[in-house]
């Protein structure tokens, strides 16, 4: 690898989400959000999938790790100083909607919430770290779900517009890079996180998923419009979950299934947000679920808005690839993979069953680059693992270094292929609560946080082996991955 491989202004950093690390879930006027009612533990998704899930807190039955997070709300200066010590050029984080608008539908914001993010942003700027902000990252205010029916209700477009206008106006002088919704396309597989829909409130009806997407697309374009009116230099992107998708074999039916899976899972949301219009395959995609365009509530003005205000770049997460097999009936499913598919015999898996595929990241970058010809930003990538600290609280995490090394190599190779890659922010740069399981024991970070799955511990921060390794990677702009 040569020193010139990564661009001189490449944005090395790390990524987190408000609901997974801040804690302080009812402090300074914050209202309840979706993650506040999601129980912790490996049964999290099964509990949500129950028709009895009621979007309420049941302290007598469950623990709720998101209430505490890693108490970043009171440790953010210490945490950002550690990021600066690693040499971060940027830090991707999110703003908790219910910290700014506790119920989500208020006209006036909560000043205490705005002041908190003023301090976080100022701390980043003090350390020459570029803030990269996700406006909405899996933390819809609970009131908007229980009282309005979540994103199926077009009123949420206006509520989001007010939220986006508030934070963009407040912070645009210090924050250049924004994203509108985290992993917006994940609703194809688990709509609870990005759309606030569970089986108990309509997730099993695909019409609700597609209507919610349309409403989110419109809301996203409104945010892009607001941002560019404030400052044409602001960069505001979409953010998708991307899983490179292979055919199990060369059978034409598996090849066709792979094409269709790519359209629905990887491309549909980006096609609308980047190109500014619904793709030609929309009709057939809807027909798969016995739906048609006339089933949906949309206007000519909304479609014009989508066309006029597409995103500037594509942010995406990449953790794994997936395999399509509709022909052979006896292939085993990939364990832990929420996005479906069968196991790939050529790949190893993480402790949570996510198949590890660095080459898939190179393919993802090449595919996205070829399709959209827009800048790409890898805003999540990482290995969830059980870390075992020694008596000095030191974690020797060669497995994490190996994972990241190979994925960074793949990014460099994609850049050589011609992909325009803006930056790379590994997920959970400091340990935080897992979104999929609500566990602390599924750790991603370069920094160990002394806290268990029950939310107990000293909350002290300790540098892992990967801390100094990533510091060296950034210092050499990706030239030294040893």
Automatic annotation (TrEMBL):
Alphabetic keyword roster: Glycosidase, Hydrolase
GO molecular function: beta-glucosidase activity
Underlying gene: pbg9
NCBIfam families per UniProt: PRK09593.1 (NF007158)
Xref: InterPro entries: GH (IPR017853), GH_1_N_CS (IPR033132), Glyco_hydro_1 (IPR001360), Glyco_hydro_1_AS (IPR018120)
UniProt cross-references to SUPFAM superfamilies, sorted A to Z: (Trans)glycosidases (SSF51445)
Name of the protein in question: 6-phospho-beta-glucosidase
Pfam families: Glyco_hydro_1
Keyword Hydrolase: yes
Domain of life: Bacteria
Organism the protein comes from: Xylocopilactobacillus apicola
Keyword Hydrolase attached: yes
Family: Belongs to the glycosyl hydrolase 1 family.
